[in-house]
Design a protein that fits this description.
Elements: H1 16-19, H2 24-43, E1 47-53, E2 56-64, E3 67-70, H3 72-75
Length: about 90
């Protein structure tokens, strides 16, 4: 069985008598996995690819019109970036 988010969750198909055999770390890990899948589903439409430097692809987050938030090293100028004069 899969949860609404498409993440397999064995705990959803177990009856109460079967739950006793699952350890606390397994339950915690399963809950964390479901929560992470939910967060990813919510933010993934805002994640964008940023190709500001040659040989370095990165990602960013669409903040609002005209604003993409990304890591500083993604757009930092280096010797392999920019134009050269003849």
């Amino acid at each position: 069985m899969e949860a609404e988010l498409g993440v397999p969750t064995e705990l959803q198909i177990l009856e109460d008598s079967q739950m006793e055999s699952i350890s606390e770390p397994e339950i915690t890990l399963n809950a964390l996995s479901r929560d992470l899948a939910h967060v990813i589903e919510q933010v993934s439409p805002s994640v964008v690819a940023v190709n500001a430097r040659r040989h370095l692809s990165s990602s960013g987050v669409y903040w609002r019109d005209g604003i993409i938030v990304t890591a500083a090293h993604t757009i930092r100028r280096t010797d392999d970036y920019g134009s050269s004069s003849a």
